[in-house]
Amino acid sequence: MSQIIEGMYEIQEQIGAGGGGIVYRGRHMRLDKDIVLKADKRKLSASRESLRREVDMLKDLSHTNIPQVYDFIQEGSTVYTVMDYIEGKSFDRILADGRRISQAEVVNWACQLLDALDYLHNRPPYGILHGDIKPANIMLRPDGNICLIDYNIALALGEEGAVKVGFSRGYASPEHYGADYIKSNRAAAVKRVTNVYADRQEENACARDASKGQGEEKAGSGLQAGREDAPGRPEMQNRAGAEERTDMPVPTEVTELMQEQTEIVNWEEGQAQAEKGNRTEGQAQTEIVNRMGEEDLTGTAEQAGAHKPARGKMTGMAGQRGGYAGHSPGRQDVEGGKLPFGRSGTESSAGSSTADGRKVIMLDERSDIYCLGATLYHILSGRRPAQDAREVIPLGPEICSPAVSGIIRKAMDPQPDRRYQSAKEMLVDFLELGRNDPRAVRHRHREAAAAVLLSVLFLSGGMSAFAGQSQLKQRESALALSEYSANALAEGDVSGAVEMALQAIPQKRGLFSAPMAAQAQKALTDALGVYDLSDGFKALDALQLPAAPFHITISPGGTRLAVVYAYEAVIYDLTDITGNNARSNNARSNNARGNNAKDSNARELVVLPVQESALSDAVFVGEDVLIYAGEYGVSAYDLAGKKEIWTAGTATSLALSGDGSRVAAVNRRDGYALIYRTSDGAEVGRCDFWGRHLSVPENDIFADAGDSILALNRDGSVLAASFQDGGLELFDLDAPEEGIILYETSGYTHFEGGFQGDYFAYGASEGGRSVFGLINVRDGVEVGGFDSPDRFLVQAGEKGIFLANGNLLVSFDPGTLEQKELAYTGNLDITGFSIAENYVLVSTEDNGALFYDSGANLISTEQCKEPCDFLALSGGLGVLANRNEPSLRLLRLEDHKDALLLSYDARYGHDEARISMDGQTAMLFNYRQFAIYDMAGRLITEEKLPDADSIYDQQFRKGEDGSWLEVTWYDGTVRRYSAGDGAVLSEEKGEPPRKDLYEEFYTEKYRIASSLHSAAEVYDRETGKLVSVLEKDSYLTYVTQAGEYLVTEYVSAAGERYGLLLDRELQTLAYLPGLCDIMDGELVFDYGSGNLRKCPLYSIGELIDMGEAYLEGGDAGF
Amino acid sequence: MFGLSGSECLLYGGIAVMAAAVLAAAASIVVFRITGKKIARVLEEEYGIGTLRGRYGQVKCRR
Q: Are both A616 and A733 inside the same structural domain?
């Protein structure tokens, strides 16, 4: 055989034949390439165009697993299709050879087939259906890949009319037979088959017998081969579940009778029928017409080696067993006349009846999928699946994995709606086999669980570390703020101290908030001064200035404060602070500063420009008029009317007469002074200095106005002035020739003094020599004087003459020369002083500021960081300033009368004061005596203690049966005195006591051991371990537990009694100066001033509220 | 506890937990890598999927 077709293709040998035609192997003569020519025997009744379209469609196919179609040739009545020659073996040969095929190989090939199918099914316009997938149509190439062959019966989906379609026995889907397993139609199908059965029983008996032996292999899991087993046969389980499957058993006879013949219908015939019949529109499916008949159904052609296909004859019942197809009821006398069949998955019929009553059945991609599934079933198991899809036995685990078995089962589901709906879907399942394997899933779950767990652990750790770090940072910040608060308080900036103390206290509690630091509470307590109930001048606030001050002065009534700095004068209204009722204002006298927040405002009244000189001066004439060295000249300013009254000539230094009617003004180094009337600024006099000038440096911005005397007497008739050359002279302005020259010249470099009445008092000093002089101006006689190596500080004015030297400040009566002590500063020299009604303010060389009352009793002290260069005191307000600091410290007189518990004789000497258990009496005692007062301040009794020098210790005890003073003598005598009336309750003689005053105190948590010569030690009561050491330089006298706090009382080395408020961790929360007792949760203080005072133990919440209230009221002023 | 304040315990304890988590994660990675390879090998033998996935890439379809 060497036939040449179209002069290009040489037919070399026949390699196969089948229902579709004869297959030849040939050669492309031009390309010298092996090809296959398939000679199609079917009648070409279709138009050439239709055939051309079909071939063109096949020719465009290009896929690794699909043979290429090259050409289509019509020669005579034969149509040749030219395509690739595929080397290798078909799978039916492979199966026949008995080769063992692994599951992995099958899966690999299945994926290739599905890829090819997907390609075909998605070809435009409507896809291509293979229609006859079976082992014989799958080639295994030498390279191990497969090729899907034989497209002669490929169906173009969507074409009107049916093409010739055949199916291979055992591989075709149920649809090929017209079988429909939708539940609602099952009964109809059974009924139909039943009807048929009666008619055709005998006819089909032979066919039934003939098909008995074909393909009845058992599956690994127990396939039942016999027909007689039909009622009990296991049905193929749909992957989606069996809920939709009918459980109605089908009698064997019915099953058999349901085997129908399927006829190959000519394409043209189908088209004609479509024109005439009731076709459902829009069907994108391929229809095959099913008709009862006895026409042969030939097997498909194969393009394989020498294997000849089994030519199955599907007449009657023959050859219906063990196939890849299902049953189809498809009888034309079916009730309702239609085969419910279709793609949509609903129970509506997609089929229709033709004009002659034949039924139309739809094929689609799912049919190919069924065929593929059946093919894979065969390859894996080595046997064909049952022809009835319901009878297919699932592949057992000894054949393949349950997952693979499941895929094949789903692909072979009798109901198309329950199969894979596309090749890609099935392909995905294959590709996902590994991923979905329980072992892989388990592994992934374990990985995920470990990742989640470790992530949570890591994040938890991170959060904990972050929380710890936040807390530590906050604590660090709190400690720093507490320190800043303490520093601010030391500088007199109370509002700053309160603000920083509040910032040091955490706003809210939470994981990221540090617990409140004890230092913060202490800082707030100190700033508010809640536990300082002593009377005296207490820090009120600090005024910030634009520059360091040159000069400060307070008005006579103490309601105005003028501060001169470079180069302005600012006047403050002190009315709100002093109020003229400071001591009598009960609303204020509770004296946590927070209660007086609104009173801390010093309102700025006016800012006035002054001469650019450190000598620029300002003096108050009454409360509302200020005469100052203005920028344009000496000026008078009305503070009430807020306007300038008058302006005179330029001057820096000023001196006001005692009566306020005259003011002397000198401009820097001018050699004269001008006298102005204060009421209108009229110049009323001039005083020549005869070529001399005040002690003023060339550059007067560094001058100190306090080094010179410029003073007017009471009526402004005498001017005192000191000069650069050390001269000191009193000028009589009315009679210039009657002036008094005190020093023509001298070596004195510093002068201070003034007039008091008819007297002029002065101090002059230079180096280590100082003099004080007192002059009767009227008589022109020096009436007194002193010399001293220490500088004399002299102030003279309407209040009197005051003289300080060394550590003593006195008032000096010029008439009697008597001195009255105003302040004694011990071993510290006085560096400055200010005198007000009833109080004296003294600065000392250690930068301290001491306040004394009219009895020269020290009432309060204030420690400054810098020397107090400027002092001013009026009524209840003290002002301190330093020439290097741009700020003023304000201190206000505070009293705490409302905190009074009881009053006693301030002269009664005592070391301790205690309140009785019943709160009715107070006992004041020391080693020599004791006195008992009732709460009204009445003395109940007063006793002397015998042999006071031999007293070892005294302890005030409180118990259930009362309170008493327990006195222990060195000889071991212990006597108890009642705290109610002083009576001796008991007396015992015991062992001589230890010399170290050892004592133990017990709280809920601690045992505290106290001895005289060492610091108190705190031990944990449970573990016995040393927990902490308390104050090192003080002797612990009492420990009291007050709720969550501990109150410890000490006596310092200097003999001062104080207390410390401690928290549970023994950290100090507050300093309690003067603490003497605790009564009913209240602290009792004794300052030795004749009264006991009490205040509650404030909680942190109360302290915070007080602090915030203080700040709210304090912000308005500055 | 151990002389540390609560804040310090939170900080150092948290760091310790984080370190433990990192070490456990490292150990888990090693263990899971080994077991994962073992399972992959078994699945490769069973299903032969490894090479296929490369060929077909990310095959997606609507179910």
A: yes
Q: State the smallest CA–CA distance between residue A483 and chain B in angstroms.
A: 21
Nearest to A514 among B7, B15, B35 (CB): B7
Domain membership of residue A342 as a residue range: 136-436
A31-69: pLDDT as tens digits: 899 998 888 765 555 566 666 666 677 778 889 999 888
CB contact under 8 A, A401 and B46: yes
pTM for the structure as a whole? 0.63
Residue A495 lies in a domain: yes
Lateral strand order in the sheet of A1034-1042 = A1034-1042, A1045-1052, A1057-1062, A1068-1073
- Three-state SS for A1079? strand
The answer to whether the Cβ–Cβ distance between B8 and A472 falls below 8 Å is: yes
Q: Please compute Rg for chain B using Cα positions.
A: 22
Total structural domains in chain A? Answer: 5
| Chain A nearest C-alpha distance from B58 (Å) | 9
pLDDT for A914-966, tens place per residue? Answer: 999 888 999 999 999 999 999 998 999 999 999 989 898 888 988 888 899 99
Helix (H) / strand (E) containing A1091:
strand A1091-1096
Cis-peptide into A970, omega within 30 deg: no
Give the domain-ending residue among A492, A510, A528. Answer: A528
Give, in degrees to the nearest 5, the angle at Cα A723 between A721 and A728.
55
Contact criterion met (CB < 8 Å) for B18 and A434: no
**Residue A255 pLDDT greater than 50, yes or no:** no
Among the partner residues A105, A424, A471, nearest to B61 by beta-carbon distance? A424
Using CB atoms within 10 Å of the CB of residue A416, give its burial: 0 to 12 exposed, 13 to 18 middle, 19+ buried.
Answer: buried
Per-residue pLDDT tens over the stretch A757-780 = 999 999 999 888 999 999 999 888
Q: Considering only CA atoms, which of A733, A662, A666 is closest in space to residue A695? A: A666
How high is the ipTM of this complex? Answer: 0.89
Residue A968 pLDDT greater than 80, yes or no: yes
